[in-house]
Amino acid sequence: MPQISSKGQLMPPSPIRKLVPYAEEAKRKGRTVYHLNIGQPDIETPQIVLDGLKKVDLKVIEYSHSAGNESYRKGLAKYYDKYGIKITHNDIIVTTGGSEALVFGFMTCLDQGDEVIIPEPFYANYNGFAVMAGVTVKPITASIENGYALPPIEEFEKLITPKTKAILICNPGNPTGYLYSKKELEALRDIVKKHDLFLFADEVYREFCYDGAQPYSAMNLEGIENNVILVDSVSKRYSMCGARIGALITRNQEVIAAALKFGQARLSPPTFGQIASEIALDTPEIYFENVVNEYVQRRNILVDGLNKIEGVMCPKPGGAFYAMARLPIDNSDKFCQWMLEEFEFENATVMMAPATGFYASKGLGQNEVRVAYVLNQEALKKSIEILDAALKVYPGRTINVAKKATTV
Ligand SMILES: Cc1ncc(COP(=O)(O)O)c(C=O)c1O
């Protein structure tokens, strides 16, 4: 039998989905499983999109321009203007989700063996994109103690080698929910400028910033206009994960020209997804106000509830819809599997993502889990009750007197 590639062997399985068979088995036993493990929101897609799609009357479902429909790109440029990001449609390549934007970005800017520095814990699929592009991830560990703020800039400096080509940040962050301040971003700007690196800014959760905080885009950092590559997506913004539309955005025309060649090789982004995304640009502001209000209430229920459980520490996230929690447990992979395989409370259990998959450094995340607050408030309250009961009887419980996190 011929051997598969080393990339095929190296490609990591998704840590978020690997427990799925156990969840399926629990459901077969008749148990309710509360899914706090994935980032699929239960929020409805804007009505304007659902209505608009019904009126689509195509005779041929054609390819579009490889960079995406011009009318959509022009509409997107106006959307960014609202955030003070001044770009034109020529600075945008529409992609098949933010995922493809990350792959195109890596392929365009980094060579085999080049290094990208990423604060960890980070979105686990960055590992997969790095394997696809032959890029090495150099993690820099953020700490739960300060809510996963940007690690000191000196730590970044220490990791820079002749092979370092880029830094990748996610703001607001998945899995941490941390929202970087302008000051933190300016510190990154200085190091990016000093070493002439690319700065990939994954801002797919831009709309989800809480407590009056405004997101500050890396695109607005002065002096590194040709270094910043913005990764964006409609998946979370309009609860349109299945539309598979994202974008790679940069003022660097050399990057645009090269990324477009990758775009041409895959012909075009999805036609229906682009139609839906263009309609979504007219989503009324009230939609976001309602969604943000809902997420704030959910966050408060979840985070306050978790912090009330003995031995649990959960910093309050400033954005996105995830939180990381430190639990009094020996091993988060074991614990999350045990929750599905062995534990039930009133015939229900909770599925969470073990945090080990969000760290590139071996051994980290063993006593942390990521929870997504994508379920309604009642389901979240129930989930906390279940987790509380589980932690009382889990055989691998540690005597952990966790310090409560400061609110961030
Ligand atoms: C931080 C982050 N970036 C990118 C993506 C990719 O999303 P999509 O390909 O659906 O745009 C996700 C999806 O969960 C994400 O959480």
The kinds of small molecule bound in this structure are: pyridoxal-5'-phosphate
CATH fold assignment of the largest domain: Aspartate Aminotransferase, domain 2
Number of helices: 13
Give a quick account of the main beta sheet: strands, pairing sense, barrel closure. Answer: 7 strands, mixed
CATH class of the largest domain, please? Alpha Beta
SS strand fraction: 5-15%
Radius of gyration: 21 Å
Q: Based on helices, strands and strand pairing, what is the structural class?
A: alpha/beta
* H and E order: HHEHHEHEHEHEHEEEHHHEHEEEH
Number of domains: 2
Categorize the overall geometry: globular
Spatial ordering of strands, largest sheet? 2-8-7-6-5-3-4
How much helix, percentage-wise, in residues?
A: 25-40%
**Unreliable segments (pLDDT under 50, ≥5 consecutive)?**
401-408
Roughly what is the average pLDDT, rounded to an integer? 95
Spatial separation of the terminal alpha carbons? 54 Å
Q: Which CATH architecture of the largest domain would you pick?
A: 3-Layer(aba) Sandwich
Name the CATH homologous superfamily of the largest domain.
Type I PLP-dependent aspartate aminotransferase-like (Major domain)
Number of strands: 12
